[in-house]
Automatic annotation (TrEMBL):
GO terms for molecular function: chloride:bicarbonate antiporter activity; secondary active sulfate transmembrane transporter activity. This is Solute carrier family 26 member 3. CDD domains: STAS_SulP_like_sulfate_transporter. GO terms for biological process: cellular response to cAMP; intracellular pH elevation; membrane hyperpolarization; sperm capacitation.
Length: 758
């Protein structure tokens, strides 16, 4: 019964052990589904399930019939045109990161958007090239291209080899994209999109920041127009920097000046768009404006001839026929493809989650995997490269009023127009301008360096993950860096659970609240009772740490006490059998003064016997181990009589830890220290029973619902002979207590002063 009194409450209930609670409250029999049950449901078929499956695989069938034509169409058209212009420019720019001709970036921008229109569940993200993924595909492409016959290892090969090398790079990039899509598609159909949870926010932030640094370094050769050898081994970023700065005197000034001007203008206007986004009807399309101006200036003043600048070059109108991927590339890039698949999905899903929460609509992670996978497969078949979503492009689509993926369809039409009709107009555009546009999109990622200070204040482990991920990725490269970062992140989780912050609890305010006794002043500990809390799972890796922390908390090793007592008992029993030890009402009388060392050696040679329970039934007297023993036999004295283990935060035990925990409990029980486990749930108890944890020594009676139940039980047990409870209460074993928030305890039948202690 709960009786509220203002901001206080009184609870009247029996003191419950787990056994007593189950006796008083009948437990409902529940059927836990087995694997076969889940499989039967999965394989069952009905018209309703078939309809749900179709709508799940084709989300467009759900939202398109409900499309509000008059309300949404104009907004989607405006948003689609703005996003399409950005998609064209980013497709061209990000193709340079893949080290293939810029025109192939348009294929990536087109096919990814079209496929996502039919299969994606987000209404606001813009599918297509993403700089980090482009960089990862480019890393795999460069590594395989190094073995291509005739490749000199530089960015500028001879004219005879240039075309065939570019074709090979395009084939490699397309093959990597197809395999990445297959992996995403397989994960989606197997419904295991949850694997992305192993990429934490800190890890993704550190990885994308480091990848942005790689993108920045990779674009220097286009900005300075230098011949830079390709490197793909660890520390390659430093080799690229050395190559750039060792030949800095060969810089093409026209490319450098153009890139700096474009980068400055784009950065300024992006900042204006960000600061005045609430006042501007649509963001200023600065990338489109500078591209048109730069293309016109380059064409009008013939920069290619006069200043020998590098331009986009020939752009063939239309699409190339689809090609089958190179299976040999699959074998060489399986690791890269898995990393690309995971990073692409993680980025797309995180961005989509932001907009789904903002606009309140559901998002299906597994269907997102299917949409991205199909997009990459189709894109790779048509010689494009892997895509996800670019943060800046998705922000344009959402901020310009995009309501649905109809905006994505309009943007795809814009890209299609460029591919089929007006792509030739971009041929005079300098590659340094595309490099500057790519760098202009990195500001948000590079600004993530500020995360270090924020994470350091909030969580040191997350800060360490961020810094380590960033360093690993910069030094080892994108593929190895991501793998090492995930391994390090999992290691921190193991470290946190392997070395949990165990604590000793005490009562606060004489109430039913128990907190770490180091944190508060008004703390009360029942004499001879220790309450120990473990805040993590207990498993094979931390059972030793748990044991040591428990020993530190109680102040002694129970195994050492047990062995000392068994040694002393063997000596006392031997003296008693030889008639050298007599018992009188006043104590022991011993007729010898010393004991032979050989007895001690005998005990040490039978160490396993010393770990057995102490048995004094054959002696005509009881031994008080905290009193003076004959012959000055020394046994450590302990004041602890009860130990409470708070397992409310222990989610599971494995077999190894169960064996270790049982050994610990047995050691305490054998030295007459009562042990109680509190706060465990029914599944935990069921697992203990299944592994035959309880026996004649470790009994189920040690389980209690709460710490306070165990404390009251101990208090009643120790004061039982002097208690004032009625005989009927003693027989029933159910004592009702009233718990006041002012700290007092009283029997429901008797008025006890508020100062009464436990």
């Amino acid at each position: 019964m709960i009786e509220p009194f203002g901001n206080q409450y009184i609870v009247a209930r029996p003191v419950y052990s787990t056994n007593a609670f189950e006796e008083n409250h009948k437990k409902r029999d529940r059927h836990h589904k087995t694997f076969l049950d889940h499989l039967r449901v999965c394989l069952s078929c009905s018209p309703q399930k078939a309809k749900r499956t179709v709508l799940s695989l084709f989300p467009i069938a759900s939202w398109l019939p409900a499309y509000r034509l008059k309300e949404w169409l104009l907004s989607d058209i405006v948003s689609g045109i703005s996003t399409g212009i950005v998609s064209v420019l980013q497709g061209l720019a990000f193709a340079l990161l893949v080290t293939i001709p810029p025109g192939y970036g348009l294929y990536a921008a087109f096919f990814s958007t079209i496929i996502y229109l039919f299969f994606g569940t987000s209404k606001h993200i813009s599918a297509g090239p993403f700089p980090i993924l482009s960089m990862m595909v480019g890393a795999a492409t460069v590594r395989l291209a190094q073995n291509f016959p005739g490749n000199t290892g530089s960015s500028n090969n001879s004219t005879s080899n240039s075309s065939s090398l570019d074709d090979y790079k395009v084939t490699v990039a397309a093959s990597v994209t197809v395999l990445s899509g297959v992996i995403q598609l397989a994960l989606g159909f197997l419904r295991i999109g949850f694997v992305v949870i192993y990429l934490s926010e800190s890890l993704i932030s550190g990885f994308t920041t480091a990848a942005a640094v790689h993108v920045l370094v990779s674009q220097l050769k286009f900005i300075f127009q230098l011949t830079v050898p390709s490197h793909e081994d660890p520390c390659s970023i430093f080799k690229v920097l050395y190559s750039v700065f060792s030949q800095i005197e060969k810089t093409n000034i026209a490319d450098l000046v153009t890139a700096l001007i474009v980068l400055l203008v784009v950065s300024i206007f992006k900042e204006i768009n960000q600061r005045f986004k609430d006042k501007l009807p649509v963001p200023i399309p600065i990338e489109f404006i500078v591209t048109v101006i730069a293309t016109g200036v380059s064409y009008g003043f013939d920069f290619q001839t006069r200043f020998n600048v590098s331009v986009v070059g020939k752009m063939n109108p239309g699409f190339e026929p689809p090609n089958a991927p190179d299976v040999a590339v699959f074998q060489e890039t399986i690791g890269d493809c898995f990393a690309i698949a995971m990073v692409g999905f993680a980025v797309a899903f995180s961005v989509a989650s932001v907009y789904s929460l903002k606009h309140d609509y559901p998002l299906d992670g597994n269907q997102e995997l299917i949409a991205l996978g199909l997009g990459n497969i189709v894109c790779g078949a048509f010689r494009g490269f892997a895509g996800s979503t670019a943060l800046s492009r998705s922000a344009v689509q959402e901020s310009t009023g995009g309501k649905t993926q109809i905006a994505g369809l309009i943007s795809a039409i814009i890209v299609l127009i460029v591919i089929l009709a007006i792509g030739f107009l971009l041929e005079p555009l300098q590659r340094s301008v595309l490099a500057a546009l790519a760098l202009g999109n990195l500001k948000g990622m590079l600004m993530q360096f500020a995360e270090i200070c924020r994470l350091w204040r909030k969580d040191k482990y997350d800060c360490l993950i961020w810094v380590t991920t960033c360093i690993f990725t910069i030094v080892l490269g994108l593929g190895l860096g991501l793998a090492a970062s995930v391994a390090f992140q999992l290691l921190t989780i193991v470290f946190r659970t392997q070395f949990p912050k165990c604590s000793t609890l005490a009562n606060i305010g004489r109430s039913n609240i128990y907190k770490n006794k180091k944190d508060y002043y008004d703390m009360y500990e029942l004499k001879g009772v220790k309450i120990f809390r473990c805040p993590s799972p207990i498993y094979f890796a931390n059972i030793g740490f748990f044991r040591q922390k428990l020993i530190d908390a109680v102040g002694f090793s129970p195994l050492r006490i047990l062995r000392k007592r068994n040694k002393a008992l063997r000596k006392i029993r031997k003296l008693q059998k030889q008639g050298l030890l007599q018992v009188t009402p006043k104590g022991f009388i011993c007729t010898v003064d010393t004991i032979k060392d050989s007895d001690e050696e005998l005990d040490n040679n039978q160490i396993q016997v010393l770990d057995e329970p102490i048995d004094t039934t054959d002696l005509p007297f009881q031994i008080d181990w905290n009193d003076q023993l004959p012959l000055n036999i020394e046994v450590p004295k302990i004041s602890l009589h009860s130990l409470i283990l708070d397992f409310s935060a222990v989610s599971f035990l494995d077999v190894s830890s169960m064996r270790g925990l049982k050994s610990i409990l047995q050691e305490f029980i054998r030295i007459k220290v009562d042990v109680y486990i509190v706060g465990v749930d029914d599944d935990f108890i069921e697992k203990l029973n299944r592994y035959e944890f309880f026996d004649g020594e470790v009994k189920t009676s040690i389980l209690f619902l709460t710490i306070h139940d165990a404390v009251l039980h101990i208090s009643m047990k120790k004061d039982y002979s002097t208690s004032k409870f009625k005989p009927s209460q003693e027989k029933d074993g159910k004592i009702d207590f009233t718990i006041n928030t002012n700290g007092g305890l009283r029997n429901r039948e008797y008025q006890v002063p508020g100062e009464t202690k436990f």
